Amino acid sequence: MSFRGVQRSEQRVPQRILIRTPGNRYDFDRSRIPPGMDYGWKRKSFMGFEDIEHMVNLEANGWTPVPPERHPELTGSRLQKGAEIVRGGLMLMERPAEISEDARELDGAFARQQVADHMKRLGLAGHRASGHGLKTHYERPPDVNVVDDGL
Question: What pLDDT digit, counting tens, does each position of 113-131 carry?
Fold first, then answer.
């Protein structure tokens, strides 16, 4: 059996090769995510330097590195005990999905509070819910420099 002039051993079963590109460099077999866990690519380094403070905050928020044995497609033949799955300064991490749901709820509440504070500061408190006094559509302003040639 030959492939572009390269001889292969008949004993070796041909494997399907996945060509890694910038578009799929973070893809992995999602069927291997344990039930009840949430995965995320989290920043480990910035401009070549480890972001220790960020890693400490991630750990405090329940994130732990995903065991590389779970995703051999991301480690290749370089799999070592205690290794981490890192791509482009991002590490694949996991935490219980329940913690992630709580964090999303807190982020949403914080964002809603920020909007309410800004609306109050602008004197629009109460208007957002009712819709009164806020424009919902806009017209293009007249432009004196545009020549209408009938098109």
Answer: 998 888 888 887 665 555 5
